[in-house]
Design the sequence.
């Protein structure tokens, strides 16, 4: 009976040592077994693995695709324009042993810092060889592929694989936005003034052309009216002449009536004439002859 506690203690210790020696790696991880800082085992497949308790330690790394947002970077382009470029990258740990050797105990945080430096260098190198308009054109895809390839070449010693690099935006630095906006506003105002000036000039030409056309139309109409009026007067005079030739007395009578009408026109017309005057010949005689004395 005295040996029973010892046996139980030994059993508990054995179970504890066994549990301490077992570790599990799932499908989202890669694991390294380290002994005094040296890699003794690489576990990349999911499942159960063993280590020596108290002597060996297990370090696990994420085997999924990781994302890294790069701080906005000011880039000088080939056309001397300066833009603020915002980008991000996606990567995964491809060689866990080299990754451990490169970053040490810093892990993902140190890897992100070093990868960010490599990506900044790749951005400056690639974008510095093109004009700023290339970032906003169809060449953007090719530029991102070149940046990715440069980042892969610079990060190969980190044990990581850069899968993709994307430029999220490219815009003017904050201190240049106001000046650029003012310059663009001034240019638009100048263009508006030019357009208004050209519009006023075109309107003046149209008005001048319309005035000239109106004057020409009125002149032609007046000329035609004068011609028609003259022809009508000539025809009227011819009719009068023919009528006078046929019956001079009737013509004299008609002219006397016209004279009466013109002389007595109006509401307040007053005339003082001698009743024996020639004006009243047709009032005293049908043929317009003076009355016999």
Sequence:
């Amino acid at each position: 009976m005295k040996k029973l506690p010892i046996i139980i203690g030994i059993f508990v210790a054995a179970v504890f040592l066994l549990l301490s020696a077992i570790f599990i790696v799932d499908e989202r991880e890669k694991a390294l077994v380290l002994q005094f800082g040296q890699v003794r085992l690489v576990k990349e497949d999911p499942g159960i693995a063993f280590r020596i308790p108290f002597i060996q330690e297990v370090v696990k790394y994420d085997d999924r695709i990781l994302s890294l947002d790069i701080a906005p970077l000011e880039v000088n382009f080939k056309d001397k324009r300066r833009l603020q470029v915002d980008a991000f990258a996606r990567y995964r740990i491809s060689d866990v042993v080299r990754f451990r050797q490169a970053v040490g105990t810093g892990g993902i945080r140190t890897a992100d810092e070093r990868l960010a430096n490599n990506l900044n260098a790749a951005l400056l190198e690639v974008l510095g060889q093109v004009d700023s308009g290339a970032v906003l054109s169809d060449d953007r895809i090719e530029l991102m592929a070149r940046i990715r390839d440069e980042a892969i070449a610079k990060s190969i010693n980190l044990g990581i694989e850069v899968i993709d690099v994307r430029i999220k935006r490219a815009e003017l630095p904050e201190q240049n936005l106001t000046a650029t906006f003012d310059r663009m506003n001034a240019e638009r105002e100048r263009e508006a003034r030019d357009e208004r000036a050209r519009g006023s000039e075109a309107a003046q030409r149209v008005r001048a052309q319309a005035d000239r056309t109106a004057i020409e139309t009125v002149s032609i109409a007046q000329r035609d009216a004068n011609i028609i009026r003259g022809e009508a007067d000539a025809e009227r005079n011819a009719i009068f002449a023919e009528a006078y030739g046929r019956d001079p007395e009737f013509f004299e009578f008609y002219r006397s009536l016209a004279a009466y009408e013109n002389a007595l026109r109006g509401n307040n017309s007053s005339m003082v004439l001698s009743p024996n005057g020639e004006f009243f010949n047709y009032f005293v005689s049908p043929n317009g002859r003076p009355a016999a004395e």
Summary: Residues 66-177 form a domain with the Tetrahydropterin Synthase; Chain A fold (CATH 3.30.479.30).
